[in-house]
Amino acid sequence: MRYSGKYPRRFEEKYKEHGHCGETVAKVLAAGKTPAGTHRPIMVAEILAALDPQPGDLAVDGTLGYGGHAQALLPRLLPHGRLLGLDTDPIELPKTESRLRALGFGMETLTVVRSNFAGLPQALWEAGIERADLILADLGVSSMQLDDPARGFTVKHAGPLDMRMNPQRRQPASVLLQRLGPAALRQMLEENADEPRATALAPALAGQLFSTTTELANAIRRILPGVPKEDCDDSIRRVFQALRIAVNEEFSALEMFLRHLPACLKPGGRVAVLTFHSGEDRRVKKAFEAAARDGIFGEIVGPQRASPEERRANPRSASAKLRWARRAAL
Ligand SMILES: C[S@@+](CC[C@H](N)C(=O)[O-])C[C@H]1O[C@@H](n2cnc3c(N)ncnc32)[C@H](O)[C@@H]1O
Question: 280 Cβ partners below 8 Å, 6+ apart?
């Protein structure tokens, strides 16, 4: 026995179990959950239909994550095609590269680079690719990042209030929160997460030191006495989302990526972006519509939603919106 009780409880134990205990993994999947240390790719069939990968294509996965979408794209690029996989996370990226290499995708087919997708032109140039046939971005955090208490992304696990996708860059959420004034925090909560209780939360949270995810969640509960538990939990989730977006400067990275897109796509090339909340989707919609008006994108489609079956099997897909576009032929 590697743990007491019927199932592992601690993250480290669960992580070890993955791959060694197929029965447990099957039960976790059947319950609509994702086994610890893994990530289930969302709307794979819809993304394949949108990007229409062909043998010989040059593809970019700007958010490699667990490599789920990449794993579906790669066989369709062969022979002679290639995928450049980017991710800003230096902790999960080597694990993903090992997994994909073990599946037989060698250096000539798959290039893995730790890079922010905001730097897409530079990443393409360094990989010797002039323009791509298809580009994918599946925004936000992966289940592996959420599952790991040491990363501090979620209230579900007690851990340091960090939230950095790349812990070598920028400041942890605890430091950001301690440095913010009430007005800036209120604006951040409203803009990044549409938090309706921002006016009550901001003055009480701004400038305070919360070292752990639990300390922050408990403080929010104290600020909102009398608010029903479910509503309070929603506020906690939105505060965490707003902080994560700010810590990782997610909106400016997305805007930069969207600005670079037309120049990085071949004529007729396709881009698909999967978003998970209104702040992301708004930006993608606006950029696609502007490029269509300018005649740069010949076709824009979306938002498409996950099928009812997928939403049942993987609750995380419920908030996903897929938008895709095709660059005009010239
Ligand atoms: C939802 S997951 C992607 C999952 C992946 N599609 C799969 O099938 O396994 C999002 C990933 O994007 C990465 N990420 C988020 N923002 C990024 C950015 N600006 N540049 C590069 N990677 C980013 C995160 O580190 C995370 O691994």
Answer: 139, 140, 250, 251, 254
Hey, whose CA ends up nearest to atom 27 of ligand 1?
Answer: 65
pLDDT digits (tens, 9 = 90+) for 48-82: 999 999 999 999 999 999 999 999 999 999 999 99
Ligand 1 geometric centre to CA of 142 (Å): 6
Same-domain pairing of 274 and 231: no
CA contacts within 13 A on the Cβ side of 57: 23
Is the domain of 133 the same as that of 260? yes
Q: Is residue 163 part of a domain?
A: no
Clarify whether residues 240 and 257 are in a common domain: no
Tokens (6 digits) for 221: 């509960």
Ligand 1: residue of 43, 86, 88 to mutate (most ligand atoms within 8 A of CB) is 88
- Give the largest Cα separation in the chain, rounded: 63
Domain count, the chain: 2
Is there a domain that residue 25 lies in?
A: no
Residue 20 lies in a domain: no
What tokens does 274 get? 């999967």
CATH number at residue 269: 3.40.50.150
**pTM reported for the whole predicted model:** 0.90
* Interior/surface letters 119-129, b for 16+ CB within 10 angstroms, e for the rest: bbeebbeebeb
Minimal-distance CA residue to ligand 1 atom 15: 140
Q: Is residue 198 situated within a structural domain?
A: yes
43 pLDDT band, cuts 50/70/90, is very high
pLDDT tens, position by position, 117-131: 999 999 999 999 999
